[in-house]
## 1
Amino acid sequence: MAYELLLSARKKTVGAKQTLKAIERGQAKVVYIAQNADKHVVEPIFRICASKGIRVIQAESMQALGKACGIEVRCASAAVIEE
């Protein structure tokens, strides 16, 4: 899975709420969404990314995405704010 952008990002958001806020503010460059995340949590993120033309990368799991974000818990979504 291509986590390079996320790992090297100078600024990023972690979690569905923070990611959604960053997208709404026009700050998100790339969004990562875990494949095993609850659909009701990530569906609004998918929709707004599609409407704004933001690239979405599917992460293999919430555990892997959390690890790529540098946290010890699972994570449904994350966004790169500044590369």
## 2
Amino acid sequence: MTATQAGAGRVRASDAEREQMATILRAAMAEGRLDLAEGEERLAKAYAATYRDELRGLVTDLPDGGRRALAETPEAKAFARTALRRHFGGVLVIGAILVGLWVLSGVGFFWPVIPLAFLFLGLAKHAAWHRHGGYRHHGDWRGRGDWRAPAEYRGHGPRGRGYRDEW
């Protein structure tokens, strides 16, 4: 079998993916799920991995693929707090603009109550999501990422129904 046949249909892993896997493994070691020797062995395999399926195999025996341990790191918690503060600040700014428009319009009915209700419901849902284990951020805890997952991760959401939680 040639090298091209061995890699047919396989996707190469990027440096960022290897580094994120190493972060997951370090978090699992800190949580006590992996001992030092096994953790170091898996870290070496993560950095030596060429393909994504090699990375996937390193965390298959960890709960939720090790992502729960990653979510419990101080960096991830700080990122979640920062994201929630940004959301709160955005809601306040939009709320102030809506109230200002209402004052300028001179309409008796306080119409901004309708969009404000939706804004605060979204903020409450965001806060509850982080409080109850909403650790599936599409991107990474260093602030790089997008509000949506890359094409190969897209599905219907974290509740199942077609969600592909792959590397």
## 3
Amino acid sequence: MGNASQGANRAVSGAASAGRSPAVRVLARTGYVFIGLLHILIGAIALQLTRGQGGEADQSGALGSLASKPGGGILLWAGAVACAALALWMLSEAAFGARTETDSKKKLKKAAGAAGKAVIFAFLAFTFGVFAAGGSKNSSQSASDFTAKLMGAPAGVVLLVVLGLAIIAGGILYAYRGVSRKFMEDLQDPGNARTAVEWLGIIGYAAKGVVLAVVGVLVIVAAVTADPSKSSGLDGGLKTLGAQPYGGFLLAAIAAGLICYGVYSMARARYGKF
């Protein structure tokens, strides 16, 4: 048992060390380009929804749209590699980057944040890879299926409510980072582009925060009403916004905000601290 644990620790340490290489650094920057492209496509699909058109306004819809374009498969594989490199870089940040902090609480917070991002980017790399290999999935259905399974587990309803509250908290955090301009701490000085990058980030983070909060509310509603279909992920969250009074204007504003977040992510590829 001890040998297995030591072997796992050595594997993680080796991966983290590899994540500091110049090649991974360049690929990790490219990862933000693909994250930006993903948000721009989701925003574009959401804009189509305001005209009664479009498909799934989420990762699956965006990646499916990209896969259908000439050369889309190559782009998807490139996105998988770049996001995997970004996950590896964040793993190295969790292992080594936090060491620069002298305060133990800040060190733990920085390491935990980087580790969480590594998981997210690794899952994103996997999703890119699934579509690149010709697969696909319905994110809304997947979210509903996951909710149904969790609902059937012991204390499943409580877990769903906690999950919904966590997603809402994440949305509030995104909005706060946007309004407070905290995201600028992730960047080197953009120089003459500072004002543009700042406004893109403010609008983008706020829009993503609103959408995440709505997704969290839908998870809680699904738990309380015992109706898993109400938990329909990002696509369901955007369509719920569109169904409200003046929803067309609200959805268009959020869609534009997601596009801004996408452009900001591309700017982060250039100006981000690595």
## 4
Amino acid sequence: MKKMKAVLAVLITAGILAGCAGRGGTSTFEPKSSGIFVTDAGTFSTATVETYDSQDYYSEEEWKSFLEENVAAYNAEHGEGAVTLQSCSLKEGTASMIFDYATGSDLAQFTAIYEDTANQVNSIDIIPVAQALEEAGAAGTIFIKTADGKTASTDEIAKKTDYHVVAVDGGPIKIQTEGKIMYTSDGVKLNSSFIAELSEGKNYIIFK
């Protein structure tokens, strides 16, 4: 674990998250920098994209083996499939790795253990629209309609029972959703129809 932390510590986080719009108003996860991806099915992935000095680094095979060992160590304690290494590469001074998670809790724990500060949150979950409205109401949080930037009424959002809500505590963080973002809690910044930049604290993203 210490070895992985030391490796990550010498890397420099790059740019902003980038995704490609797909057919039917959805996005695909093709990251050019670090961020979290949330799918319509409620699954989570993280991408960590960083620059490195090739003189102080692994070969790509050694890097992949190193990451797989850390995934195996985590899964040994939390269950097979809790975290999966989807892909990794070292190319032209850029290291990239994408992990898939069984739950938001696994994402929060894994990124904390290995100090992936670009993707680290206290918690991240997919929750029903009604639950998001209840929590937001208790905290005095308001929602913004992304189409026009105006405040959205509770009644309006309550009708969108087929929408997905990402509830995030932590940050700052960038999140990409598979579906188009329709509403956010106040203070969330949109980088595109699918990518949001969240400040520290409790935030909500509601997407199709």
